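Sample intake sheet
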Amino acid sequence: MKIDYSISMTKANLYSIIFVLPVIFLGWIYYRIWGIEKIVETIQFIKTKYGVLFAVILLLLGIVIHELIHGYSWRAFSNKPKETIKFGINWKALSPYAHCTEPMNVVPYRLGCVMPAIVVGVLPYLAGLFSGNSALTLFGLFFIFAASGDFLILWSLRKVKHGNLVEDHPTNAGCFVYEKNSQSVD
């Protein structure tokens, strides 16, 4: 049975606002450990001409890396050929994307969804938190928030049984699930 587990990109962007709260909490943890001075210094640098340019380049590079991690993770974890992974931008929703054109098991799909949040979000955040580097912390926080659509997809798949096939939705955030039977695991 083919079930649609997707939502529109516009709706996904709206729902992502929910993920501001955990990001604020993680920022508060940094503040409690290191204080506000380092954050203010980083923000003052970003407000300079070169700081803005550096921040924009770094964020654009991070976005590209985020999508590449999706694609290469799906490919690595599901053994799909490289021709099945497509990259692009949904201009209507201003959302870059990585898309697998073939169904895969739900486990590698989930792994491919979460990997960018870990690699470009959580790891830089933790490195910044432990070192006191506010720029690294802010970069990590931005990309944890940027993964909010991925977290929505993971949440929607939480009851899907292992072994079911998942096919990326071609235009929406999410996927189709090919359930072997109609029961789900709680």
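Comment: The chain has one domain: 2-178. The first strand starts at residue 2 and ends at 7.
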